[in-house]
Amino acid sequence: MTKNAADTSNQGSNDESIAVPHIARRGLLYIVSSPSGAGKTTLARRVLAADSNIEMSVSVTTRAPRPGEKDGVDYHFVDHAAFEGMKDRGELLEWARVFDNYYGTPRAPVEAAIRDGRDVLFDIDWQGAQQLSEKMPNDVVRVFVLPPSGDVLENRLKSRAQDPADVVAKRMAAAASEISHWPEYDYVLVNSHIEQSTAAALAILLAERLKRGRQLGLSDFVRKLQSAL
Ligand code: 5GP
After folding, report:
1. pLDDT: is 146 or 158 the higher one?
2. Which terminus of the chain, N or C, has less C-beta within 10 A?
3. Which residues of 132-149 are buried (b: 16+ CB within 10 A; e: fewer)?
């Protein structure tokens, strides 16, 4: 794994990660929040597909799987007792009640990833974002995704057709309250065009990776560079 300090990653390979020189760095926690229907899940999938050094945090939830959702991929689906057990044993980095269900982030995979210099993408709500910001203030990058209009949000929620009508109505009502948390985020994207939003999300990722404080191997690199001058 140890590469020459001046080696630039990804050149001549099929790896489509954003090219960042291989200087050891601490991984970051890339949090994406939005009201349901703003396009956050699609955006997250596109970021994951475009960059191999960021992985999804798979949450545990007490909610029932929707059609097509896979256990261990979309969520770890657990019952209430199992969720409580994880919470009590300190195995969740954060947790929250959203609508009528509980959601939480397993701690171990996140800690291992950032220690190894891999980034983790979180699709979590404002409560989770707040808790991670308190626990790991230097590691979080918070992005809030807004829909371009109320009509677009409503249409997206209806066209999903995965949730019953009363759930859709509840989510519309909850959208206003979720949106009120936008000032707690570092970046805000208005998701009018998914291609542009994906490009913006990847640009944020690149800029945050390059932050001096995250590049743990920088002193070493510069020392070697200076001794070669
Ligand atoms: P859904 O049921 O539509 O998958 O998710 C409902 C809401 O719960 C979304 O806003 C999603 O971001 C949030 N959520 C999913 N997993 C977690 C989690 O582990 N922690 C927190 N705080 N929120 C989560």
Report:
1. 146
2. C
3. bbeebeebbbbbbbbbee
What CATH class is the domain 24-210? alpha beta
Q: What is the pTM of this model?
A: 0.89
The pLDDT assigned to 123 comes to 96
Nearest-angstrom CA–CA distance, 87 and 82: 9
Q: Is the CB of 144 under 6 A from ligand 1?
A: no
**Residue 13 pLDDT > 80, yes or no?**
no
Nearest C-alpha neighbor of 99 from the set 179, 31, 30, 35: 35
Measure 96 CA to ligand 1 centroid, in angstroms. Answer: 8
Q: How far is the CA of 125 from the centre of ligand 1 (A)?
A: 6
DSSP classification of residue 33: E
Report the separation in Å between the CA atom of 171 and the middle of ligand 1, taken as the mean of its atom positions.
12
Distance 1 CA to ligand 1 centre (A): 35
3 state DSSP class of 6: coil
- Residue 96 Cβ inside 6 Å of ligand 1? The answer reads yes
Counting atoms of ligand 1 from 1, which one is nearest the CA of 34?
10
